[in-house]
Structure formats: C-alpha cells, structure tokens
From TrEMBL:
GO cellular component, one term: outer membrane-bounded periplasmic space
Matches recorded under PANTHER family: TETRAPYRROLE-BINDING PROTEIN, CHLOROPLASTIC
Organism of this sequence: Richelia sinica FACHB-800
GO molecular function: tetrapyrrole binding
Highest taxon above the source species: Bacteria
This protein's name: GUN4 domain protein
Amino acid sequence: MTDPMIVSGTANDIDSLRLQLIAGSEKIQQQLIPQLAEMGNEGLEVLKEFLLKRRDTPATWIDGKAYQALYNCDAPTAREFLQTNFPEGIVPLKSDCGINYNPLQELLARQDYQAADRLTNQNLCELAGPQAAQRKWLYFTEVDTLPIQDLQTINRLWLVHSEGKFGYSVQRDIWLSLGKNWDSLWSKIGWKEGIKWTRYPNEFIWDLSAPKGHLPLSNQLRGVRVIASLLSHPAWHKT
C-alpha cells in the first residue's frame, strides 16, 4: 500500500519526490524508488543523485534498492552511470584471499538469489582451501579459518541487495533472539515445517517474499555444526 504522503509521480512532482527520497523514512524511500524508476529519465536522474550523495557512507539496503533499480532498467545511461561511478557496485569487495566478489554482486543486484546462493557456497569453499573447493562443502572445523573480511563482504552483499532480509548476520540475530534454539530457527526462516525439512531447490523461496533470514542456505544433512560455526564466527563481533 502506497504511503499517502507520497506525491503522485508526474513530471511536475519531481522536485517533491526528490525531497521525499532524501528526507523520507525507509518505508517512504522503499516505495519511491520503483516509482521513480518508472518515470523515465527524470526519475532515473533523481536515483543517480541519491546514490552519489550517499556514496561516502556505508551502503544500506535502501542504497541497494536504488542501485538495483538503475542496474535492472533498460536505459543505457543508467548502466553507463553505474559503470562510471560504481564499477564494482556499492559494497566494497574486500577479500583477504584475493577472491573476486563481482560475480556475486552482479547476481544479487539482479536478484537472482538461487544462483547467488550457489556461488556463495562456492566462495566459502574456496576460502576454506583447495580440499573444500574440490569436495564443494565445508567441514565445521574449516569455518573458523574463514577470513573475517571475506565473510563480512559476502554478508554485506546479501544484506544490501535483499532489503535487509537475507544474510548470515540476519540469521544470527534471529537465532540469538530464539535462545539459540535450532528447531525454532528452522521454522522461523522457512527451512522446516513441523517435522518436514524444506526440500532443495524447489521448496525454497528464491525471492523477497521469503521469510526473513531464509537465505543464504547451509546444508543441514550433516548436522548443525557448520551453521553453528558460521553464526558464531568472530566476523559478527567486528565492524
């Protein structure tokens, strides 16, 4: 439901919409961004200005939504703007292991969450070393060796490009709020219903209609030790 404070998106309203985007609440900003993206060049210019004004502060999911609106629109000028001003996206792609997180950033910007989930698992295995990369899954003992900076980069990409719904830190917050009760967590994030586990891939939800914390996935067939190590990693205790 559109907020009644938002002015309808005609050309004469563009200055009002610009002010609301800058000063409005997250709820108003969330509604305005797709509205502006549909207004043609004038609306896209407002989104460009918005991102440029905020580029010196850490990106939030609102920045991610504005970035996605430009990234996924058909206007060549929008893509040119992003390539010029944000060639690697709006999240710094820092890695202690030299891993290129641009492919993950691009999948998340397109909201291709299923492919992004597969790539995230691949990246974690690469971080754990050649044996994990070859077997394509992690031992829980390998999780502690994952670099803090890389985990934070992966997590920030998920947060920024999912309206703050997905990411390991989101799962951790839910887990802690439930007293670290695993059965409650599985139910809360949609990985289990009653005694029935959600089956991969068709029963998982690969869009923003999913429950908060639904993604990225961790394979529970080998028990909870891997996700327990992930959610207890020191990456979440450091900014």
